[in-house]
Structure formats: structure tokens, C-alpha cells
Amino acid sequence: MSPPARALGALLLLVSTALGAVVVAAGPASACSCVEPTPAFLDTHDVAFTGTVTDRRDPGDEVIVTVRTDRVFKGDVTRRVDVVGGSESDTCSLAAQDGDEVLVFGNLDDDEVSSGLCSTVTGEQRRALVPDLGEGTAPAAGYLRAERRSWGLSHEQFAAGRAVLGVIGLVLLSWLAWRTWRARRRTP
Questions:
Q1: What are the residues whose beta carbons fall under 8 Å from the beta carbon of 64, sequence distance 6 or more?
Q2: Which residues cross the membrane (predicted)?
Q3: What residues contact residue 63 under an 8 Å CB cut-off, 6+ apart?
């Protein structure tokens, strides 16, 4: 093989690897814009309740907050509820921290309550909205626990692994293309 052909092959391999790394490692664009919560949220959610956040954890791919429930405005809600949200890196994930008083508008999915930044209300907005929801009822006894099974990887670790595998795949694909090109050049 001539020196210019080798240089061209090496350049092709380098460029395809670099472009692959950029494409594979790029994460999705993210922005979160919320509609201000109103009592009409009761119509679009399975559960609504107030309480205090007693625990916040990130078991891998999602944030889970445990809420000690005070009042229930819709649905069957227990005294303690795990609320599942987006990942730590997601701009629309649950923002509530330990000790925050929250109003949660959530949806039930396989007996787990899910919510996000736009449907979990804190602070002054919570204090203003709660009286408009009515008196509510006391929560039922029990604990509605979220059972999350992850590979033990955070979102960032999973994304990094995906990027590495993508680059390896592109290198192998580039090598295969180069070998095919080289073999075709040699045949008379």
C-alpha cells in the first residue's frame, strides 16, 4: 500500500472516530417550562396530596422522595409515599429536598406515584393553592413504596458507557471499511 493511501486510511479512521465520539456522547437538549398549577390539575392526575419530604435519594436512574402525607385531595394515598421523578441531571426532575412541604399532583403507574418539577408544588405557591383544593381527607395507614431496580449506575455513568461503546463500534466499523477498500484495491 502506498504512503498516501495509508495516510488517507489513518485520516479516515481518525475523523470517523472523532465524529462518532461527538455524536454518541452528545446528550439530549433539556429545558423545563411549567404551566402554573391550578385546582384543575386534580382532573389530570391520579392522586393529589400534601406532606413533608422526609427523604430524598437517587438509586441510579431516578430521583425518589419519601413524603409524610398530611392531607389527601384525590386518590388512595397512604401516610408515607415514595414519589418517583426524573434523574438528577434532568431539568424537570423533582426539586423537593428534605424538610420541604409539598403539594404533589401525581400519576399512578404500577402502584407507584410519579411526579416531576411541574406537578410538585412548594413554597408560597403551595400555600396559595392548597385552600382552593378543599378540605381533603386524612391519609390511609401504610407506606406506598417505590421499588426501583437499576444496574447500580447513575445516568451519567450509563451515558459514559454508551459513549465508549459507540466509539469502539465506530472504530471497528471504520477498520472494516478500510479493510474492504484495501481488499478491493488489490483485486485485479
A1: 56, 57, 58, 82, 83, 84, 85, 146, 148
A2: 159-178
A3: 56, 57, 84, 85, 86, 87, 88, 93, 94
Write down the pTM of the prediction. 0.63
How would you class 25 by CB atoms within 10 Å of its CB: exposed for 0-12, middle for 13-18, buried for 19 or more?
middle
pLDDT for the residue numbered 36: 86
Q: Where are the domains of the chain?
A: 9-22+154-186, 41-144
Nearest to 72 by CA among 49, 51, 46: 49
Does the domain spanning 41-144 belong to CATH 3.40.50.10260? no
Q: Angle 3-25/155-186 helices, nearest 10 degrees?
A: 160
Name the stretches of the chain with pLDDT < 50. Answer: 27-29
Q: What pLDDT score was predicted for residue 132?
A: 94
Beta bridge partners of 169: none
Question: In this structure, are residues 66 and 81 in contact, taking their beta carbons and an 8 Å threshold?
Answer: yes
What pLDDT does residue 116 have?
84
What pLDDT, on the 0 to 100 scale, is given for residue 175? 92
Phi, psi (degrees; rounded to nearest 5) at 53 = -70, 125
Write down the pLDDT at residue 82: 93
